[in-house]
Fold each of these.
Amino acid sequence: MKTKFVVITGGVLSGLGKGVVTASIGSILKAQGYKVSAVKIDPYINVDAGTMRPTEHGEVFVTEDGGETDQDLGNYERFFDENIFKKHNITTGQVYLNVIQKERNLEYDGKCVEVIPHIPLEVRRRIFKVAKDTKADYVMIEVGGTIGDYQNVLFLEALREMKREYNNMIFVHVAYLPVPGNIGEMKTKPAQHSVRALNASGIQPDIIIARASNMIDKIRREKLSTFCNVKEDAVIGAPDVFNIYEVPLIFEKQGLGKKIVEKFGKKYKKGKLSKWESLIKKTKKLKKTVKIGIVGKYFDIGDFTLEDSYISVIEAIKHASWNNSVNYKIEWIDSKKYEKNKSALKELDKYNGVIVPGGFGYSGVEGKILAIEYVRKKKIPYLGICYGMQLAVVEFARNVCKLEGANTTENEKNVKHPVIDILPEQIEKLKQKKYGATMRLGTYPAKLKRGTKVRKLYKNKGKVDERHRHRYEVNPEYIERLEKKGLVFSGKSPDRSLMEFMELPKHPYFVGAQAHPEFKSRPFRPAPLFDGLIKAAIKKRIK
Ligand code: GLN
């Protein structure tokens, strides 16, 4: 196999943007004409991210083949402009599950199955499978967690062994360099310690990425070089940026692409990063801004808000805004406040567009429905994604069709008007408590109705594919009643049984999708429904 591996580890802190670093390194290699792919290793026992609360873990990114994966796979897709699949996310849970299953099937020929060597071997088998299936020249391997964590030790062991035998591998360590307020100086000590901890696992980094608020200077490069045993020019600065798509350019400017290929004995060809350069140039010059309100609930952890739960939605807003030559400003709205105080709804007037993104369960739902009613009546551009579409149907049923108390059975089992109901194939799964990876997941096609806004946005295509993650659907028994009052189902599954898209033709922009169009949005190919929202938002009054 000719694949080369670039392993990315993280030190000092979590949340360093290791995913963006990984995706950016892949991008500069891709720009040199190489085929690139990536693997994310997650140390948790969950088999996949699907059973985790978004505030615990961030967004659950859905792949084409229906994987419920780590949000970093979204970064890889957006930076590489390529699809990444379920098997590219390896978790401790998957590894152990497989080893134990194999043991039960007598696949170890009567051997004693042990943590070493069998767990690292299974990790390796999975990494090599990705390399083989993608035929990539370079596979990035991002190790989740922080060096020093007990739970990623076995993955480091697997990678150390892999390097010994396979050799076509380099290690890049991303470490945080704090600038403590009271000192006002960038400190390298925590990074030094994290490299020591990595050394204790038998791994010596080839390159150090110095993540900090500022660019690392010469003195601190020298320090890291001396204490961490890397060449000075192998310390690469990664300062905070306004726009993550600038990171590949910052790395390339410091010669990172050259350094990596030369470490593998390859000759450097100057990479073509011009499309990223023009994007950054363009975004720095934008004058007008659209203000988008996102009404959701997975925002806060303790006293802090975390945008990670909706990262693909945020990226999709960015892509669509830039495509329309405007800046974006996103504000997070906790729907529960509308339940307590309806007069607060007036604040929605200040947005050029409103989104209700995907979600689950009862909390905050009535507030979301109130917000949807408000933007429908006030003709504020609206995009409802998955739950956001389902709740738009509930709102329309209650307030326009006068189906009193209409609801989704997700929240009210014996509701009088179950306008959103469980998908028939899901009933049995829930009865048996089979929650993991059992939703309607991944890509499904929809046929679009002629003359609709949605079809126009999809460049008048008759059939489109989007990625799904849901258990509930628009109840077929209510379709006629909803349509009679003016709600248009602009897209349906090919057998016409499932309502995939909806819109209100008389509204400037009131569109819903059962799928999650944000997962397929790319920097140079915005998701059509987000593009439509931004276009309508611009028309609404823009400052
Ligand atoms: N809770 C809804 C369902 O399961 C919507 C899911 C979502 O928004 N992804 O159908």
Amino acid sequence: MQQILQEIYEEIRPLLGEGEVASYIPQLAHISPQKFGMAVITIDGDCYSIGDAQEPFSIQSISKLFTLTMAMQNDDGSLWKRTGREPSGNAFNSLVQLEYENGIPRNPFINAGALVVTDLILTQLGNAKQAVLDFICALTDNLNISFNLAVAQSEASVGFRNKALAYFLKSFGNIYNNVESVLDAYFHHCSIEMSCLDLAKASLYLANKGLCPTTQQTIVTTRQTKYLNSLLLTCGTYDAVGDFAYRVGLPAKSGVGGGILAVMPNKFGICVWSPGLSPEGNSKAGTMALDLFTTKTGISIF
Ligand code: GLN
């Protein structure tokens, strides 16, 4: 496995620097596009990594996986009435579909869907902002994981689309709480910083039928694990999801910080980070690295 990561790193090097870093969030504009890290952690605890795998980065939309997991844990039966389960075929921050579809976001991994999910856990748990961070710290057994307040503030200062989405959702009655509180929690969740090693570890419940190997706690049921992995496969990488599934063959969630977290059920979690993004908002080198990984190892869900 280590040898394969080394080969991938060498093959990927010429691609580093390609794509655009997410400069629409001013604080993320400064990140070097040359960064590259990758980590694999098995459910038995074996760990392999390469490059900048220990360096924390902005998880951005990868946080949507953890908020959805918490919403499933606390679902009062309204989750799937308030959001759909279909790929959107549109940009992650698009407004157009919401108007046609009466304020019901296509899925929980686009921004509109994540805002609804954040609202749901805000109702269920009160302090949604802190609850998601605590959940992530417990999954990784790492209390040093935290928000990057400058990133959260930076996004809040220019996040007009997300604000538009949240108020639009409110106009359809699909945000119950104060809109600004929902946005505040959402921006903070996106600003959480984790390394590839942290994220690979945090994903292990999805590779282990819902049981976290670190804490031995049941995070979700086997059935809910199937649901989450299926949603990752069909909706986790936005409107590049078809191409991503074709090339990589693993359930995955991307974020505009350049991270991609993927899961091989019953085996391992894998995370790659490189900040240069495709137009759809997925890490270019990261997608290539995962494509090479499943090709070289012959391991994918198919
Ligand atoms: N915070 C980002 C946004 O809302 C997250 C988007 C992403 O990572 N795709 O625009």
